[in-house]
Specification:
With about 200 residues, the chain is of the alpha/beta class. It is about 30% helix and about 20% strand. The protein contains 7 helices and 7 strands, in the order βαβαβαββββαααα.
Length: about 200
């Protein structure tokens, strides 16, 4: 199973880490969807990434107060594990404590594919940038599946071409609608609804 790096940048979001780390985990409790990033030094043989916090287990992180850019930089410098979803990170911030959303970011690697996506043109538009989606944390498994095993010809037009359409007035991207759009015939996904 692959994982997304999870950063917690706000003290008030730390109480959510046990719930979010265990959400939709394997029934055995063996693994969840995240690697919890704690020390800036990264995991070691003595202290590997935690996946799920046990009841009452402390979560300490060096990323309280860190910016999104700090998390991005750390991820790019330390993403050497074969079990990490390439280019995805998640961030719990101060807002997460209020509305139970998290920020999921996708890094469009300069060496990655450039895909021509119908009316949208090439997606994502720019290489070497992070693209951000605020989502309900319960939708993380769907996002991981889309980016890890989904067909980029379907995923990119929906996530990048229709981001504005699928983001509500509170700035939350509707993953359920995105997944439904990806079930439509391929040609419909390539049409920009604004044109």
């Amino acid at each position: 199973m692959t994982h997304v790096l999870l950063f917690c940048t706000a003290e008030e979001a730390k109480p959510l880490v046990p719930e979010i780390s265990a959400f939709d985990a394997h029934p055995s409790g063996a693994n969840g969807h995240f690697f919890l990033v704690e020390p800036r030094s990264g995991p070691s043989n003595e202290q590997p990434f935690k996946e799920i916090l046990k009841e009452g287990e402390a979560f300490e992180t060096d990323f309280i107060g860190a910016s999104k850019q700090d998390c991005q930089k750390w991820a790019l410098e330390n993403d050497k594990s074969k079990n990490i979803v390439d280019g995805l990170i998640a961030i719990l911030d101060a807002r997460s404590a209020k509305d139970r959303t998290l920020v999921i970011q996708f890094y469009n690697d300069p060496k990655g594919p450039k895909l021509e996506c119908g009316d949208f043109g090439i997606l994502p538009k720019e290489l070497g940038l992070w693209y951000e989606f605020r989502i309900d944390y319960k939708k993380v498994p769907d996002v991981i599946a889309s980016f890890e095993v989904g067909d980029y010809d379907q995923v990119y037009p929906v996530y990048f071409g229709r981001k504005e359409e699928l983001t509500d007035e509170h700035g939350v991207f509707d993953v359920a609608k995105a997944e439904a759009l990806m079930q439509q015939p391929y040609i419909d996904q390539l049409k920009d609804p604004r044109s």
